[in-house]
Write a structure and sequence with these properties.
heterodimer; A: about 800 residues; alpha/beta; Four Helix Bundle (Hemerythrin (Met), subunit A); Helix Hairpins; 6 domains; six-stranded mixed beta sheet; 29 helices; about 20% strand; B: about 160 residues; alpha+beta; OB fold (Dihydrolipoamide Acetyltransferase, E2P); five-stranded mixed beta sheet; 11 strands; globular
């Protein structure tokens, strides 16, 4: 069974490839009906599929291809001229063939699809001669001879790979039977003559030999060959069968020297995963190298390390590109089904349309090639149906009668651009808006403020359709919505340009690969997030005054556009502990046809990241596309830009609005215990002394035993501190470092830090000032002195006492 | 001398046989403490036990999902069992461990307060979960009694099941 499955897989792969080629050839044939070379090629495809399918017992498929073959054979011999009508029938049968193949792929059988109507039409085309109706078994014999004539030039042996294997078997069986009878007769004759005959069973080799050269046997048939009358050879047909199968591709190989090998996609995926790990390790190595460089500046071994690191990183990058390339397929694989589609559509719509394809050799990752097909079908259908006008209309407008749709692909940086242009009537902005209003997709207000570009984007809204009537081709208002979803899934960007009466141009910009991507790392509070660079249009630094609030939503003006803004912290529920500064960074995200400004606290940089899944337990978290491991070993979440844009609609942006109230709150002091001071000292006694000195003021005191703890307390944000008393020498984090850390947070920029230390040296004082300490109290000190310094620094009003 | 040796060898093999005979009736568990209670999971479901490392918060999840962490290149979710069992959060200390449990294709890390020990317990000493707690939704597989201790044996597949 497994062997059968394997053969079946090979058959399917081969057949799909052949059929794909067939479509292309047939359309070309229609324009060059005289091209014998082309006809022969097409005939051979039908023939090969027929042969293989009968071998695998797909009767329906065999039946169909057999009749196709008949028609094509007639055409090949000049008995039939290919007219568009005949071509319609042939194309129909090719379609049917594809359906059958798909059925076989999904269910391993081809029953349940009715081909009789199509077969009848094929028969009609081939002249209704009786022979088409003849059963499969004898027709191929005529075919066989034809093929042989054809191929004898390049092959001495008859072309058995094209021979119907069933037939071979039947033939062998027939021959065996015949011979056995002859043998028997002969033996009887011999026995009658009194001789005993040894009866050696034939070796499998011999049987194989017979298989390979049945023709000779037919000639040799009359010669008596000693053979046992046992059915053994027939039983051996199993291995023989596979022999024939193995022989077939081998024979074909020399004809076109095979420069490629077929590799299981799983293996490539695995390779890609390994490379991913390597990229992560490389990132880590670079980070370590930087650290080491900082620490051992000027050491000799550094240069050597540097060299190794750069070689490793260079090779990793090359390796990654090389493996990526093995997964690449030319986009022509998708493009080549369109000539046929355009042909069908133009006949159906009574329009004259020409398709110009360029850049079909441009390569894309396999997974993307698979996803891109559907959107392109919808776009091209749309162009044919809505874009290109009827021929008379075109002539009236002074355009050539035949409309042109051009489909081209090209590389642009780390992305591939697929551009679909038509010279049709273009998009009418007013019409788009009116239609959308009618269908309730937008409100009147939105319509008024909408730019032309945004209006073009309306065609991607679900439920939208500009077609006056629903036709077979389009108008149900689902197609373009599919385009948008699929392109967004690939992190692609759609750009539409259109001029009324002149044409429409659609650009799809898609990243080259999906597994390893370039990302922009952004920071919000203490967290980092990675945004796929493909979705980032630009980043801008703005000040708070540039943010406006319109209907509870933050917006900003970006050149001549109004960009809605959302804070990444609002989307990802980041606790706003530390204040954001006067300035903010806006990452302008572009996806499909829409844009959004994402406010972040900081931009960290650009990095190559490997997408890892969050696993089943955490899958489907809104706004998170996956995770990646950074150079420092930490995990960073990757933003799902599609989901983020959806989420942004629901978030009432609080971007930079909440801190005003906070400040007010902290400024209003009406009684002593509105004040809070933190004491940071590792010695419990010292903390006690300070507490004793400050307690009489009636203010709140919070204690921390070292810098780290103090910082954690600050981060928790439970208290609004008015000052901090900091010891310099402490375990884990000393006073200077603590002061430096605190000053990094905007909210605490103006928090008075008072050093309380036994270090009295001048340089110590200097360091204190450098790290942002405002006062320097040396131990020992009097309680009153400490109290007065604190009072001064927190603006303590004496009336509270 | 050789007799003695023989005796010892015999004794050893006897013991081995005994162990093999009884292995069917014995369940091996690893016990740990969350809050005041001792819990246990089958030893074979434990991929590893590590000291706390850095993790990254994941938004839109319940509080008990602390986030994800990097375990030698794999991104693994981290679940705080204290929070999951309705206890208050506690600062991680020297005894806190991450329990990495694996069943089927599912892997997740669980924060526990303290490890106790590996436990061999007879099947007959494991009783069913209390009626009020039993059922398919319950996380409790059974209750083990050993000496004066009571162990709550947890269903690993339930722990690894996403319930939000």
């Amino acid at each position: 069974m497994d062997e059968f499955q394997e053969i079946l897989q090979d058959f399917l792969v081969e057949s799909f490839e052949l059929v794909e080629k067939l479509d292309e050839d047939l359309v070309e044939l229609e324009s060059n009906p005289e091209d014998l070379e082309l006809l022969n090629g097409i005939f051979r495809v039908a023939h090969t599929v027929k042969g293989a399918s009968s071998f695998l017992n797909f009767d329906v498929l065999t039946h169909l291809t057999h009749h196709m073959e008949d028609v094509l054979n007639k055409a090949r011999h000049g008995e039939l001229v290919i007219t568009p009508d005949i071509m319609d029938v042939i194309l129909e049968s090719v379609d049917l063939m594809k359906t059958l193949l798909e059925k076989i792929r999904d269910t391993s059988e081809d029953s349940g699809i009715d081909v009789s109507a199509c077969v009848a039409r094929l028969d009609k085309v081939s002249g209704g001669t009786g022979e088409v109706q003849t059963p499969v078994s004898d027709a191929p014999i005529e075919q066989e001879s034809v093929v042989e004539e054809e191929l004898t030039e390049d092959e001495d042996e008859p072309d058995y790979e094209n021979m119907d294997p069933d037939e071979i078997e039947a033939e062998i069986e027939r021959l065996l039977q015949q011979r056995q009878e002859e043998d028997k007769a002969k033996r009887e004759a011999k026995i009658a003559a009194g001789e005993s005959v040894p009866a050696p069973p034939p070796s499998p080799d011999e049987v194989a030999q017979e298989q390979e050269e049945p023709k000779e046997e037919v000639e040799a048939e009359s010669k008596p060959v000693p053979l046992t009358p046992t059915p053994a050879p027939v039983k051996k047909e199993e291995p023989v069968k596979s022999d024939v199968k193995a022989a077939a591709p081998a024979k074909r190989a020399p004809a076109a020297v095979e420069q490629t090998i077929r590799v299981d996609v799983k293996r490539l995926d695995h390779l890609m995963n390994l490379i991913g790990e390597l990229v992560l390790a490389k990132n880590r190595l670079i980070k370590i190298n930087d650290d080491v460089e900082e620490r051992y500046e000027g050491e000799e071994f550094l240069e050597e390390l540097n060299q190794v690191v750069s070689i490793v990183s260079l090779v990793t990058t090359d390796l990654q590109i090389a493996v990526m390339k093995t997964r690449m397929l030319p986009i022509g694989k998708v493009f080549n089904k369109f000539p046929r589609m355009i042909r069908d559509l133009s006949r159906e719509l009574d329009k004259k349309i020409e398709l110009v394809i360029s850049g079909e050799e441009t390569e894309l990752d396999k997974s993307i090639v698979e996803e891109i097909g559907d959107p392109l079908v919808h776009i091209i259908r749309n162009s044919c149906d809505h874009g290109i006008e009827m021929p008379d209309e075109r002539l009236a407008k002074g355009k050539p009668e035949t409309g042109t749709i051009s489909l081209k692909a090209y590389n642009e940086g780390n992305a591939i651009v697929i551009q679909i242009d038509d010279d049709g009537k273009g998009l009418d902005v007013d019409m788009l808006k009116n239609k959308s209003l009618e269908k309730g997709i937008i409100t009147e207000k939105e319509a008024d403020t909408m730019s032309d570009k945004e209006a073009f984007g309306l065609i991607f809204k679900p439920g939208f359709s500009t077609a006056a009537a629903v036709t077979n081709v389009s108008g149900r208002g689902v197609g373009m919505d599919v385009v948008k979803t699929n392109i967004e899934k690939l992190n692609g960007i759609i750009d539409i340009e259109s001029e009324l009466g002149v044409g429409t141009s659609l650009k799809l910009k898609i990243p080259l690969t999906l597994a390893i991507i370039q990302a922009l790392l952004v920071g919000v509070q203490e967290e980092h997030y990675a945004i796929p660079l493909a979705s980032v249009l630009e980043t801008v630094r703005i000040s708070r005054d540039e943010i406006y609030t319109v209907e509870n939503r933050s917006v900003m003006r970006l050149r001549d556009e109004v960009l809605s803004l959302v804070h990444i912290g609002d989307i990802f529920e980041v606790e706003r502990i530390l204040d954001s500064s006067e300035h903010a960074y806006v990452v302008v995200l572009g996806l499909g046809a829409s844009k959004l400004g994402l406010i972040v606290d900081s931009l960290v940089g650009q990095e190559e990241i490997v997408i890892k899944s969050l696993g089943d337990y955490l899958k489907g978290i809104e706004g998170v596309a996956g995770a990646t491991i950074r150079g420092d070993g930490g995990v960073t979440l990757i933003v799902d830009v599609v989901a983020l844009m959806q989420m942004a609609k629901g978030v009432k942006s609080t971007a930079m609005t909440d801190n005003a109230s906070q400040e007010e709150h902290s400024h209003e002091k009406t009684k002593a215990d509105d004040y809070t001071v933190m004491i940071v000292d590792d010695s419990k006694t010292d903390r006690m002394i300070m507490r004793k000195a400050l307690e009489p003021l009636g203010i709140n005191l919070v204690e921390a035993s070292d810098g780290q703890e103090a910082l954690n307390i600050l981060k928790q944000g439970e208290h609004n501190f008015d000052a901090m008393l900091i010891d310099i020498e402490m375990p884990r984090m000393d006073g200077y470092t603590l002061a430096n850390e605190i000053k990094k947070y905007n909210r605490y920029k103006n928090l008075p830090l008072i050093a309380v230390t036994s270090r009295t040296g001048k340089s110590d004082r200097m360091r204190g000032v450098e790290s942002g300490m405002v006062e320097y109290i040396t131990k020992p000190y009097s309680g009153d002195y400490l109290s007065s310094v604190v009072q001064r620094n927190i603006n303590f009003k004496s009336e509270f006492l | 001398m050789s007799d003695k040796l023989k005796q010892i060898i015999d004794k050893q093999s006897e013991q081995q046989n005994l162990a093999i005979e009884h292995s069917d009736d014995i369940v091996q568990l690893v016990g740990f403490i969350i809050g005041e209670e001792e819990y246990a999971v089958p030893i074979l479901t434990i991929q590893e036990i590590i000291k706390p490392i850095r993790w990254t918060r994941v938004p839109q999840t319940p509080a008990y999902v602390l986030g994800v962490f990097n375990l030698r290149g794999s991104v693994i979710p981290l679940i705080d069992l204290r929070l999951k069992f309705g206890l208050g959060a506690k600062k991680h200390n020297e005894e806190t461990r991450f329990f990495v449990l694996k069943q089927g294709g599912e892997v997740a890390g669980f924060v526990i307060d303290r490890l106790t020990m590996a436990i061999r317990i007879k099947k007959s000493d494991i009783g069913p979960a209390p009626d009020t707690m039993a059922g398919d939704d319950s996380m409790i597989d059974g209750v083990g009694k050993q000496d004066d201790r009571i162990l709550t044996i947890l269903k690993v597949n339930k722990l690894l099941e996403r319930d939000f």
